[in-house]
Design goal:
There is one protein chain. By secondary structure, this protein is an all-alpha fold. It has a domain of 198 residues: Orthogonal Bundle (Hypothetical protein af1432). 66% of the residues lie in helices and 0% in strands. The longest helix has 21 residues. The radius of gyration is 18 Å and the shape is globular. The termini are far apart. The model has no long low-confidence stretch (mean pLDDT 83).
Length: 292
């Protein structure tokens, strides 16, 4: 069973995905305009505002998760300026990914719980960095939201084989990514990284998605943002799993390595505080984004 994946065919499959195959027209247009260096904030705002649902989701995320703004953000133009184009682009992709999750996987994964786990990891990741790296909160949030996109690709590409990996993880009490490596020859972090590159996401987000299960992510360049993103999302994922916020198909629990906490400059009291406050924040974001 090992190395069952034909990597060239997997890459072809990923190349065939155009920012998720079912992405709404307005989101697709938004991404095209953001990618155009000549586009202005006003142009981008005018396109987003044509999609009421997308507009509301972006405003709710900005106001629910990021508390650093002096006044409530009430317009897309203000949100564009506050977030920056790169973050807005990534968030748009993240939201389209979330909508896509609601289609077709109910008989394999509980999509609502999977989405809740993604939200939980995103919210906690932003909490992890808000003291030491406050300017990274928005982008790290997106990294948490997208960290498991590789699972969606594998569910499409090798659904029968991936179900076996899910079952082995549960039955043998082994981390899912290790079961993926054993049965498929690749894990969802690496697959997600391939898709993130296809989407032209930042190096920091690619690192967060690819390395969120790495035991040694804190040994990477300590001065690089890629290291901060990978460590923050890694830590957030472990906390979300421990707190049983949603379910991602991985029931295995791993203690947070002390070296990881040291790199992020998190003390035990900080973790306790995150444990206390994260449920309320996650439920607020979940409710406002209308998960049902």
């Amino acid at each position: 069973m090992k190395n069952i994946i034909d990597r060239s065919k997997l890459q072809e499959f990923i190349e065939s995905l155009h920012s998720i195959s079912t992405i709404p027209a307005v989101m697709s247009k938004t991404l095209q305009i953001i990618d155009n260096p000549q586009s202005s904030a006003s142009e981008i705002s005018s396109i987003i505002e044509k999609d009421y649902a997308l507009t509301m989701k972006i405003l709710k995320i900005v106001n629910s998760v990021f508390y650093g703004y002096e006044e409530k953000v009430t317009s897309i133009h203000t949100a564009v300026v506050a977030l920056g184009l790169k973050t807005l682009r990534s968030m748009t992709l993240g939201l389209s990914f979330v909508d896509y999750l609601k289609q077709g996987f109910e008989n394999i994964l509980d999509i609502e719980k999977f989405w809740e786990h993604s939200i939980g990891t995103a919210v906690i990741a932003s909490m992890v960095v808000e003291q030491r790296y406050p300017k990274l909160r928005e982008d790290v949030f997106v990294g948490g939201l997208l960290h498991d996109i590789g699972k969606v690709v594998l569910l499409q590409f090798l659904v029968r084989e991936y179900k076996k990996a899910l079952e082995k993880s549960k039955d043998d009490d082994i981390p899912l990514y290790l079961c993926e490596q054993e049965l498929l020859g690749i894990d969802h972090g690496e697959v997600g990284g391939l898709l993130a590159r296809k989407w032209h996401l930042s190096d920091e987000l690619i690192s967060a998605i690819t390395m969120h299960h790495s035991k040694d992510c804190f040994r990477m360049n300590p001065e690089a943002k890629e290291t901060v993103f990978a460590c923050a999302v890694n830590c957030a994922n472990l906390i979300a799993l421990e707190k049983e916020i949603g379910a991602s198909g991985d029931a295995y629990r791993t203690p947070i390595p002390e070296e990881l906490l040291e790199f992020l400059k998190l003390k035990p009291a900080d973790i306790v505080e995150i444990f206390k406050k994260s449920n309320k924040r996650v439920q607020k974001v979940k409710k406002e984004l209308v998960l049902e």
